[in-house]
Specification:
With 239 residues, the chain is of the alpha+beta class. Helix content is 24%, strand content 29%. It has seven helices and eleven strands. The chain is globular, with a radius of gyration of 19 Å.
Length: 239
């Protein structure tokens, strides 16, 4: 499923679908395992999926699988690599802490992480990670999904190149202030991309009770984008 221009909401629904699939495999407090997951059940989502191995003694993590759609997020193939092979030391430490919490607490987690480790400090990902356990108790794999907002450097090669790249993106892409036609108020502006997505989630607490939460994802560009890339953008969009 490619997140075409104007269809980031559809990509967000795919994200929700993956979470609902995972939640539906739970039996009370017992977690689903890798063996419970049948890729054919969500074949159209596979390009967006990541799967992380949990290694113990000492605790560490390896990217067992990364969907092809994540190549454009990470800038290269990351399947089969350890955290230190993908990230710089600060980013690897970040993921060890976050993934370690998922292993210890046996609960899904969401967060926002800057892509500065790959030289894209203007971009961040909103991530979702879902614990898996072969025995229903001890987390031995983690299922993941990411969403991305645009930054100013995505416009360095012009709108046509950007739109062609986004046509192959397999994750939600949002930006609230790239305007193709200004309205009388910001709320009536026509934007190049959906300004935000709302992700509906259910999280299970330590007592096994489920709670519905809503996560808003919004993307914003610095206004100086129109100065830095004026040769590409003047007369086509405003920020």
């Amino acid at each position: 499923m490619a997140a075409q221009i104007g269809s980031s909401a559809a990509a967000a629904r795919a994200h929700e679908e993956l979470y609902a699939y995972w939640a539906g495999l739970r039996t009370g407090p017992r977690l689903p395992g890798r063996g419970d997951i049948k890729p054919e059940d969500f074949k159209r989502l596979l390009p967006t999926v990541s799967l992380i191995d949990v290694r113990r003694d000492p605790l560490d993590f390896r990217l067992r699988l990364a969907g092809t759609g994540l190549y454009s997020v990470y800038g290269r193939e990351i399947t089969g690599r350890g955290l230190d092979d993908v990230y710089n030391s600060a980013a690897a430490d970040y993921w060890r802490v976050e993934l370690g919490k998922i292993v210890e607490e046996r609960r899904p987690a969401v967060g926002v992480h800057s892509l500065s480790w790959r030289g894209a400090s203007h971009m961040s990902i909103l991530w979702l990670r879902l614990p898996l356990a072969t025995n229903g108790v001890d987390v031995d794999m983690i299922l993941g999904y990411d969403a991305v907002g645009l930054g100013n450097h995505e416009f360095n090669y012009g709108l046509d190149f950007l739109l062609a790249s986004l046509a192959g993106a397999r994750f939600p892409v949002v930006s609230a202030n790239v305007v193709t036609q200004a309205g009388l108020a910001p709320g009536s502006d026509q934007t190049l991309l959906p300004p935000y997505v709302i992700l509906d989630r259910q999280l299970t607490d330590g007592a096994g009770l489920r709670h519905r939460i809503r996560i808003g994802v919004i993307g914003l560009l610095p206004p100086q984008t129109m100065i830095w890339d004026r040769t590409h953008l003047t007369g086509r969009v405003i920020t």
